[in-house]
Amino acid sequence: MRVGTGTRITLRVVALGYLFVLVAVPIGVILWRAFEPGLATFIASISTPAAISALNLSLLIIAIVVPLNVVFGVVTALALVRGRFRGRGLLQAVVDLPFAVSPIVVGVSLIMLWGVNGWFGAIDRAGFQVIFGLPGMVLATIFVTLPFVVREVEPVLHEIGTEQEQAASTLGADRWQTFWRITLPAIRWGLTYGVVLTVARALGEFGAVIMVSSGFPGVSQTLTLLVHARYIDDHNTYGAYAAATLLMGIALLVLLLMTLLDRKRSDR
Amino acid sequence: MTSNAIDSRGAEHSASPLSRPGSSGRDASETTTDGAGEGGRSRGSATPGTTPKRRRVGTVRPLGIGIVTLWLSVIVLLPLAALTVAAFSEGWAGFWDAVTAPAAIAALWVTVLVSAIVAVVNAVTGTLIAWVLVRDDFRGKRFVNAIIDLPFALPTIVASIVLLSLYGPNSPIDVHLNATRWGLIVALLFVTLPFVVRSVQPVLIEADREVEEAAASLGASSWTTFRRVVLPTLAPAILSGTGLAFARAIGEYGSVVLIGGNIPRETQVASQYIQQQIEIDRPVNAAAVSVALLAIAFATLLVLRVVASRTQRREERDA
Fold this sequence. Notes:
Chain A is mainly α and 268 residues long. Chain A folds into 2 domains: 1-36; 45-267, Orthogonal Bundle (MetI-like fold). Chain A has helices at 5-35, 39-46, 49-82, 88-100, 103-114, 121-125, 134-160, 163-170, 175-204, 207-212, 223-232, 237-267. In chain A, helix 3 (49-82) crosses helix 11 (223-232). Chain B folds into 2 domains: 38-87, no CATH class; 91-318, MetI-like (MetI-like fold, Orthogonal Bundle). Chain B has helices at 8-15, 21-45, 51-58, 62-87, 91-100, 102-135, 141-147, 150-153, 156-167, 181-206, 209-217, 222-251, 254-257, 270-279, 283-318. In chain B, helix 1 (8-15) packs antiparallel against helix 10 (181-206) and helix 2 (21-45) runs antiparallel to helix 3 (51-58). Residues 1-58 of chain B have low confidence and may be disordered. At the A-B interface, helix 1, helix 3, helix 4, helix 5 and helix 7 of A face helix 1, helix 2, helix 3, helix 4 and helix 6 of B. Chain A: The chain crosses the membrane at residues 12-35, 55-81, 93-114, 126-150, 191-218, 238-261. Chain A: This is Sulfate transport system permease protein. Chain A: GO terms for molecular function: ABC-type sulfate transporter activity.
């Protein structure tokens, strides 16, 4: 389609103007507000005891969620790609389910299952607190991040087929050797990409986690909950801007990593 | 055009985490074309001595399938089952009363209305941005292309704070969207920005430009060419992106919680209503509205899948 220069410039200006107003200006303003009082103020605001423990809690949740997602995600991807069993289509659909569920609904569902009056309420009554404790936040985070590793590893498994694994097995390798030496190296970039997506989402999850957390500063507050609490409860607007800027910095780092990994994967 | 900056593969991948409906169907069909044949053949043609070894690789043991089923059940299915049972714990009438309570209806209505507006705006601006990114050329295009993914990478609560810093109570430009429906719309436009752009972009890259040139050489104006040639090609992608944006918008919480203001009947969206019902200890109401919200999301995704499979069939027939 040939477009006149005038039209082309108009379209460009409209598109860039939209992005500018919606994305660039707000981000510019928040950066300015976070750093305007000086770098020292910013650092002081993100290194209060509550902020440090929030960062630690977020990292702890990631440290629990990522290995679980890696192990079960790879097993799930293998089963979905290689398995021939009834109900496979159903499992495919279940893996996609978390994308269609609102984070708040995730939280409510977990309360209905693990809460004191839920189906598994006996666990809570026996003294092992799930909802309003770390396990609840971990379960919520796993729910929302479950599809990432599966969906990134699956296409790679399709692509590589089973020929190399069959060769390895013919040469006498056992299941584990085949997996460690053949399958894992082949899926490593897909897996890494899935892990990066998982980390980004786990760090940024808010709706599902706020429903199942007691939200005490220094105890059960993740970074996202800290941003919310500072703005709403403490009326510490600057603190909220600073913490949000920190999260944004991490998100940008993740975005950069994603771009690099994507390039690496397409080069292969 | 800087092809590697926005190669279709990259675009597809960046959209993949959230663009679901079409993909699992595609996965399933891929499986039947390569996996099944291989597994079956190796078993059939292998000599008796090598059969056990070969079979070990191509198939998954029942243990693996059991683990997967158990994992998906505990994490995803059981919570949703518990939610549904709780929603109907006072019978169908109880569910209906909870969903049709004036405040619940109002929240659902605000949610659907605002999300529909956001979806339609996205259809237009998303297509426009995709077009500019693919067909136009200017300095800094790669950078603009990278910015599109930012709303996916940014935590939703950060999106909320970012927008408040500009349009909130201390707005430096004196635009106050705090606690208005406009605030909701801007927040949702921010978080759903990538959907339409990333689904239209690869299609536009692949689009056959010769047809467009033919139309132009036959005397069609560029607007006619766009309407009659380009738009029909892009329509399925636009629709899929718009639908995904809508599905995302109706469930959104983090980005609207601060800027929305949570005013019942005005700016309170369904997710905020649900959260409020849990806080005032009305779990049945919360569960019922959750189920209603889920039903809307599933219906949207189902429509998308049906449309996608019909388009695919038509394409296969034409090919």
